[in-house]
UniProtKB/TrEMBL annotation:
Record SUPFAM superfamilies: Ribulose-phoshate binding barrel (SSF51366)
InterPro entries per UniProt: Aldolase_TIM, PRAI_dom, RibuloseP-bd_barrel, TrpF_fam
Domain N-(5'phosphoribosyl) anthranilate isomerase (PRAI) as annotated: residue spans: 5-194
EC number assigned by the record: 5.3.1.24
Similarity remark: Belongs to the TrpF family.
Keywords: Amino-acid biosynthesis, Aromatic amino acid biosynthesis, Isomerase, Tryptophan biosynthesis
Pfam families: PRAI (PF00697)
The name this protein goes by in its record: N-(5'-phosphoribosyl)anthranilate isomerase
Pathway field: Amino-acid biosynthesis; L-tryptophan biosynthesis; L-tryptophan from chorismate: step 3/5
Catalytic activity from the UniProt record: N-(5-phospho-beta-D-ribosyl)anthranilate = 1-(2-carboxyphenylamino)-1-deoxy-D-ribulose 5-phosphate
UniProt xrefs under PANTHER family: N-(5'-PHOSPHORIBOSYL)ANTHRANILATE ISOMERASE
Example of a GO MF term: isomerase activity
Amino acid sequence: MNTKVKICGLKSLKDISIVNKYDIDYVGFVFAKSKRQVTKELAKKMKERLKGKIKAVGVFVDTPYERINEIIEYASLDMVQLHGNETNDLCSKINKPVLKAISIKNKDSVNKVLKYKDICGFVVDGAVAGSGKVFDWNFIGDISSNYFTFLAGGLNEENVEEAIEKIKPQVVDVSSGVEVDGIKNEEKIKKFIRKVKNNG
């Protein structure tokens, strides 16, 4: 299985110059309140410098769909990732493919996926998105055999091989696991990708 890589939470042109060197498939720009939040202006500049084959994903939390569509258009985003209480109806009004994030607290968390029809896949993450903490992978069972799945939540070069083996996600999604003091680190990105691609 050829597992793809998403590096989330890019916030500078330097981050873009790093990811452009490696075999990365998706990057995430966070528009929600967060230490990694970026403006639409910065996102536009980053997207303009991003290597063509890498897809840019905008990350939002409970943002009106009109605002999401405006930012998609302005910054030329390829996809969006919704981390709040967005309904399927809202997802259906977004002008690009939508990934719905699910916070996994227990086995019942996965039942939420059944409500969403107008999306292209799911991001499964821990109870607190962006916390860098691993959740209990047993809770999500074989979700990746039924849905296009991005696995997030505390992944790093130490545990990503086990995660791929156990969950078989289509995409592994990392943010703090490739940072040093809150800044994306090229050496950590390189090691993370090597572990993923060797596995695939």
